[in-house]
Amino acid sequence: MRIAEAMEAPLDIEPPTYSRLSQALATVGVNMVGLWSQQRQLLAFIGLVIATLFQLIFRPRRWRVTATVAHVQQSGLNAVPIVALLTFMVGAVVAFLGATVLQDFGATVYTIDLVAFSFLREFGVLLAAILLAGRTASAFTAQIGAMKSNEEIDALQAQGLDPIELLVLPRVMAMLISLPMLAFVGMLSGLAGGAMVAALSLDISLTQFINTLQKTCR
Prior knowledge:
Blueprint: H1 2-8, H2 20-56, H3 65-75, H4 80-102, H5 111-149, H6 152-158, H7 163-201, H8 206-217
C-alpha cells in the first residue's frame, strides 16, 4: 500500500530556472552547433560531387548527355521568359528612378551609365541567380526529395548505380550551363528596359543610347 501510494502521489519538483542571459547563450550555442553541422554536410556534399565529376571526366561513355540537355531545357530555356520580363521591368525602374534624381542636376544623360553599370556588373547576374535558385534549384530539391521518400534512391543503390552520377551531376552541369545564358539574357533585357524609359521619358534616342553605352563599356 505504501509503495502504491508513493507511486500515485504527485511529484512537486520544480524545473530549474535560468536567467535570460543563460537562455540566450544556450540558444546561440544550439544554433551555432546546427549551423556548423549543416556547413559540414554541405562541404561533404560538394566534395562528393567534385570527386564524382573527376572520376567521370575521362570516361565519356558514362556521361549523361541526354539528361543534362533535358535539364538545361528545363532550367535554362524555360526560364528565359520570366528572367527577361523581370530584368526588363527592373531596368525600366532603375532608369526611371535615376532620371528622376539626375534631372534636378541637368545630368539625365548619365542615366544610361547608371543602367549600364548596374546591369552589366550587378543586377544581370544577381537577378538571374536568384530566379535560378528559387525556380530551378527548389524544383530539383523537390524531385530528389520525392525520390528519397519513395525509396527510389535506395533502389538505385541496390542496383549498384551511383545516385550522384545519375541524379546530381546532370542537374549541376545544367545549372552551370544555364546561369551564364540567363545572366546574358538578363543584361540585355535590363538594358532594353532602360532604353525604353530613356526614349519615352528623356527624349534619348536608341542610337544615342547605344553610342553612349559603347563609350561607357570601353
